[in-house]
Amino acid sequence: MTFSKLYQHRYYPIFLCTLYLVLFGIIVYFVDFFGKQEIKNILKKWLPWNLKVNFFLILIGLVFCGRDILGTLKSLRGRSGIILGVVCVIGFLTACFVAPRTHRIFYDEHIYANMGQNIAFGNETGHCHYGVFEYDEYLPQSIGYNKQPNGWPFIISIAFEVCGANEISLFILNNLFFSGSIVIVFFITLTLTGEYLAALLAAVFFGLIPHNIVWSNTGACEPSATFLLGLTALILVIYLRSEKNLHLLLLALVVPFACQMRSESILILLWVVLVFLLFRPKFLIERRLWTIGLVTTLFLVPHLLHIYAVSGHSWGAEGAKFSIEFFRNNLGVNGGYYFVNEAFPVLFTVFAIIGLFLKDMSVRWRLMIFIWFLLFWGVFLFFYAGSYRHGADVRYALVSFMPISILAGTGADAFRRLLAQRTSKAIAASLMVLLVTSSFVGFIPLVRRVGQTAWGARYDHLYAREFIKVIPKRSVIVTHNPSMFFLWNRSALQAYMAINNPRIIRHLMARYQGHVYFHYDYWCNAQNAGSRRLCREIQDKYHLKEVAKACEQHYKYGLYKMSFKEPEKG
Fold this sequence. Notes:
Blueprint (H helix, E strand, L loop, with lengths): L2 H6 L3 H22 L2 H29 L1 H9 L4 H19 L10 H15 L4 E8 L2 E8 L6 H13 L3 H27 L2 H13 L1 H6 L6 H21 L2 H15 L7 H13 L7 H24 L16 H10 L9 H12 L5 H16 L22 H22 L2 H17 L2 H5 L6 H13 L8 E4 L2 H6 L3 E4 L2 H4 L1 H10 L4 E5 L8 H13 E11 L2 E10 L6
Helix pairs in contact: 2-14, 3-12, 3-14, 5-8, 5-9, 6-7, 8-9, 8-11, 8-18, 9-18, 11-12, 12-14, 13-17, 16-18, 17-18, 18-19
């Protein structure tokens, strides 16, 4: 029986339901018959393959949509396309050269990169606790499963396979995601409104949001998460316009990939369902949706198992992680963020509010964009670390910037048309350029500033890179942060192994002619009793000969050559 006949058969819904039950049965099977650690060990190998196949099929889908893509690009011939290109290039250069190129989440960005290393060179996800380099060949000895989703590390792995493992790849990738997101904002707005200037203004607003620029020159996962959320939204909008099966299939492929960029990224699945309820409620019971939806479900199975396997993780804090108790404080901070004109231009907020109530887009389109914002802004109101004022957690705001920019573009274009009625079009356009530019200029110091957040960890990273220059390349470093050294092609292992398993240290001392070094790092200074105690235990157990040292404020950093104080017993 051909698929066409099967699809039309009256029993096809039963067949379809059976397939869904099989996929959910796989999840139930793993949950019932395997412990969380066993599931993690399986996912180490399963997730990289799942992401590779998913990514490859997305590329194929884009190729098959090539005619539609080229048709859209042809509509931007001449000056229209050049102006968009200029905006995109300026956005890329601003992220590259205006914002400081630095890590801002220590040491998560190093862990993301090491996960990418392990996927690229071992087809296994997780962060390495103990690994060595033998003549530039990376040999991980112990890999632990990580609680973070694997989408961003997988993308990093592609860059590492092509260019080799290095920190610069993380920054360049995020620069590209930022400029790519500018283009996506443009095309979403253009598809919704049909107005070139509204779309261009939306792209400009997105490119001028200060924290967008700041975080697009880091190794954080938020720029890639924003890009994938935007790509999902663009494909969904295109499908609602065209109703082509090919566009629906591409959407079904992109959704599971987008869900794996950040923990809250899975909300994009809920948003897509809500949009279908808003625009095509009857479509939710059609065979076509549920048939193509199998693709999404299939690629989501390992991620759903990932969510289960890491559930109950402390995430670095005790107590509830999501609670109504956090709502009031986070609402004041995260709501005020868009209005106080300290870190986000209030003019952009004003234009977004205007755009929300304008009739340039239908009520349903505006509601769709507002729900997008509400989901990805509102989720952090209940999160224990969801306050934008909490250290580097302002990065959580990035996933809300696209819907704001789209609404701001339509609001600003309406304001421009109002000005054009009282003056000429040229003067109106010039006034808009002046208004938008002047609203951003005051935020340039914020964009250019590194800031005091995570200064202790930042100098740990800075000095560690200098320390390794004075020791042989064929040596091993005992540290709390081995991921950092793996990026620099240096052998390293977790500090706790020096206490829990001194035989490894003895083995490494023999293998590397005594070149085993203890890194006195950030965690030896920080107010973490367990980490500081571990550093003291290493100092008590081993002779430590100073090789390099540095200070920043009251923090001390150093590198010490290790040797045993007494022969190991037993």
